[in-house]
């Protein structure tokens, strides 16, 4: 049953007996909660995860030998994260302020991190490039709107 409860990439972090002990302990601590309390408690935990609220995209990157050929790209309110597809380790998170350019098409998504002259380009093969483009455009638009609002408030 542990295979159904513990993600494969975390299962080796502890022994089977240790996982069982921890699960039973948490179950006993939380067994008196109402469904609403359990939902709130769950959200308080996952809200702290760096990928909370992310949209995930599987891509094949063709430019940076420092990263695996296949990557997961997570886009959320923190920026754009590159994630190892097997270990699920976050390799890098680029805040929106570091993304200077991006484009997409039916089979690709391109992004420049840093400035256009000395920046790093990430070229990805994906059929969801247009969705990545739209999401990135929306987050950056929201960020710029919020920055302009703060400037206006400071000027008043």
TrEMBL record:
Database matches in Pfam families: IRS
InterPro entries associated with the record: FERM_2, FERM_central, FERM_domain, IRS_PTB, MyoVII_FERM_C2, PH-like_dom_sf, Unconventional_Myosin_ATPase
Domain FERM: 1-147
Coiled-coil annotated spans: none
GO cellular component: cytoplasm
Protein name: Myosin-VIIa
């Amino acid at each position: 049953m542990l295979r159904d409860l513990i993600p494969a990439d975390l299962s080796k972090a502890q022994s089977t007996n240790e996982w069982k002990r921890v699960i039973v302990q948490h179950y006993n601590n939380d067994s008196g909660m109402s469904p609403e309390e359990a939902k709130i408690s769950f959200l308080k935990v996952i809200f702290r995860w760096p990928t909370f609220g992310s949209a995930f995209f599987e891509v094949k990157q063709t430019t940076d030998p420092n990263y695996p050929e296949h990557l997961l790209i997570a886009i959320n309110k923190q920026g754009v994260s590159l994630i190892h597809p097997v270990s699920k380790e976050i390799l890098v998170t680029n805040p929106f302020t570091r993304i200077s350019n991006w484009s997409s098409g039916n089979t690709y998504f391109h992004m420049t991190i840093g400035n256009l002259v000395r920046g790093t380009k990430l070229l990805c093969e994906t059929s969801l490039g247009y969705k990545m483009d739209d999401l990135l455009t929306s987050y950056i638009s929201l960020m710029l709107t919020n920055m302009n609002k703060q400037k206006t408030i400071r000027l008043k």
